[in-house]
Structure formats: C-alpha cells, structure tokens
C-alpha cells in the first residue's frame, strides 16, 4: 500500500460510517489531503528545521554541499523561483528562500517605500513569511492537481502502465516548501519585542531567524554608514529570546543566525557593563577610542570616564551622544562578536562585509575557528557590491603582485565596456562564477544568498518591456520579449489562469457538484491556445 492508497482507505472508513456522506468520494478527499500536506506554519517550521540541520551536517562533511537562496519580496516571486528550480534541477535540495528586511522596507510597508532602518511595520515580516508559504503550498496543490488529472485520463484510456507511472510520481512528489532564512533586523525593540516577533515568524513557518547586533532604534542597512552596535550582553539577550520562542513552540531544532555589523560599524550607543577586568563588558569597552586622563582637571562637564587597563579612559563622544571605537578594530570586534554568539546559542554567523573577497572572509573565519572549529557562515552576496569592478580590481591587483604587465588597464575605470572582452575581465568573470564554491571551501560559508535580487530583476524586466512596448515595437515588444520566451522556455505561468488556480477550482467544483459543475476550462478557454 502507498500513502495515497492508505489515505483513500482511511477516508473510506470515515465516510462509510456516516449515512449522509454517501456523495463524498474518498479518493477526491485523499487528493485534497495530499495537496494540503502542511496544515499550519508550525508544521512547516518543524519540517524545514530538520532539512536545514541535515544540510548543515552535510556541509560539515563536504564543503561542496553548500546551500543557496534568493531574496523574494512577494509570494508569487518565491513560488516561481521554486517552480523554476524543480523544472531545471528536478530537486529543491539545498535551495532555500531568503526574506530580506531591506525588501520589506522598500516594497511592503504601508508607509510606502522606506530605507532599511526598521521603520516598517514589524508584522509585515511574519506576514510575508506566511504569504511565501501560502504560494509554495499552492504550487504543490497545482502540480499534484495536474498529476491527478493525468491519473484520471490514464484510467479513462485503460492505460494501466501510465496509471502506475503517475501514481509513482504522486508518491515521490517533492514539495516546493523549503527553509526560509528570515531577517528580524535588530529585533524591533527590546528582548521582549524580539521574542514576540520571533514567535509570530515561527508560527508563520520560519525555521531560521537572522538577527543583527545593531541598536534597534538606530538600525541601518549593513551597506550604509552610521551603524551603531550594542554590547554583547544586549545582543545575547535577544538570541536567548529567539531560542525561547523556538522552544515554546516546539521547534526544538530551530536555527539562529547571529549577524555582526562590526566590520563597518564605528559607533556604540552605550558603554558595556563590566564587573571585573577581562570580562565580556571589559573586552567590548577595550575597543573604545578616547584619551587617558590623569586627574579630574582633564575631565570637562558631562564627560564620561571608564576604568580600562587599570587607567581612566575618557571615551570620545559625539554630539549625538554616541561613542566611537578605535579605528582599525573592526576585524577584532567581528571575531569577538562571532565567538561570543556561537558560545551563547547562535548556530550560524553572518559577517557583513564591504566587498566580496574570499581572502578577507577566510582570515576572520580562521580566527573564529580557533575557538569554535565548526563555525560556519551565511553570507550576503549583496547587490550593493559592484561585483564586476570588485573582481576586475582583484585580478588587477593579483596580476600586479605577480609581476604581470597590467599597463593596458586603468584600475579606476575597469568597469568600462571597453574591457569586457579583455583577458583580465574574462578571468574576473571566472572568479565571480566560482566565488560561492571557493568561499564555501576556503571561508566556511555554508549558505550563499542574494538579499534583493528580485527587486532588481523586476525593475530590469519592466524597463525592457516599457522601452519596447511604448516604443516602436508596440505589441511585438510584449510578444517577442515576454510571451514567446515564456512559451519556448516552458514558463508555467504563461498559462496564467492555471497558475492562479482555475484548474484547481474546476477540480473542486467537480468534487462538490459532479456533472452540474460549471467549469472554466472548457473549449472556449483561451488558455487552450498554449
């Protein structure tokens, strides 16, 4: 017996025990059950947490088994991404979704477009998680619905071989539901606020929550200036709050990603509490920039003084009330942040960098692994980096160090199209292509993501369509640039009525009304042209 057959039998037993249910077809009910595998977001969180933990273990044994995701700002975009992955690779293994706080701010806030500064409604985070999984579950229902229609056609034709083939596909069906790494920003408030939002996110389906060590009310995008970090104890309280949320909801293997912005953050809002030399607070304060004072005469009205290294230090304080860190301490602070987070409940790290450079990332990770040998990263392959220029300059610098003649290139202008077919640019593109595999192998990166790629693809594709459709190409701009490509590339949503659920609705109408069902997919449905 198969699960599908088992469900039919189980439902038959229930239906036969109720005299008034004789019109219910147990197989139709079994189909609806198969098309709705996940009943709640918690079901999804528990299922995907196990997937992610298994992937982490697999990566520890083989760094070639790294994972990837793309940020998606709408359920439809996430759905189409997973449909595409299944179509091209026949598996969703090691492919996740990323939920970007940046894109929520820019695209999902009721205030309208906002910068990535935690000003958007916090509930929009859990709302997008729920929306993404609603669309992924609909993708399951749609694909299984197609298989069930194939099954009925095979039975009608008396083709038992085809019937067996389709039933095997039903039993071996791989869901579109995959893990989401979800951005909770800096927690949207204190540790209690972090806990409450984390619960909503987990209940919506999140098995993995990423939190950063910035001050909530001063939060900035990781690739902007003005970032302000918090002392470690403040950050650890929020990590614990998220863990409590996972445990309360029964997701015992939920994953926490601790992000540090210290590499590019030169400011702190508060001086850490310290009880004795060398404790965590003292280590945090040791990075403060300032001047040692010998007497009260060196202290002005309102100055703050701390004891550090047995001496009195007057930290440099800005007009904003923020304190500065010593220049050049970013990497040391990153290493301390990461070790501290992993030793206090975090599972994965995120180091926000200013450029995609394997050597830079590896240098920090190797230091972290001296204390935590299995430390591994989630890394932002950010659109904020100019990848072309960065890698062309990396090749330029490497060739210069090797003594190779680079006089044909202007390092500052390597983005220019005139270099596109050059030997240097070809080598740079090879390094971009292998960046994820190289960084997974050499720099401990378990998961590679692009935070907001679909923000850019939406803008690019819309620009191309608008240019052609409103220009000389007219309708051909849409037909040649969109529809013809959809048909030839096998893009499922070319049948947009089907993608939106019309065939599933017809199936249900037939289940509910039998021959009296008024279905949309008749011969006059123009979708039949595709």
Automatic annotation (TrEMBL):
Can also use Mn(2+) ion. Mg(2+) binds at residue 183. It holds the Pfam family ICL. Keywords: Lyase, Magnesium, Metal-binding. Its cofactor is Mg(2+). One of its GO terms (biological process) is carboxylic acid metabolic process. InterPro entries: ICL/PEPM, Isocitrate_lyase, Pyrv/PenolPyrv_kinase-like_dom, Pyrv_kinase-like_dom_sf. The keyword Magnesium applies. The active site is at 221 (proton acceptor). The keyword Cell cycle does not apply. It catalyses: D-threo-isocitrate = glyoxylate + succinate. GO terms for molecular function: isocitrate lyase activity; metal ion binding. PANTHER family: BIFUNCTIONAL GLYOXYLATE CYCLE PROTEIN (PTHR21631:SF3), ISOCITRATE LYASE/MALATE SYNTHASE (PTHR21631). This is Isocitrate lyase. It comes from Marinibactrum halimedae. The lineage of its organism: Bacteria, Pseudomonadati, Pseudomonadota, Gammaproteobacteria, Cellvibrionales.
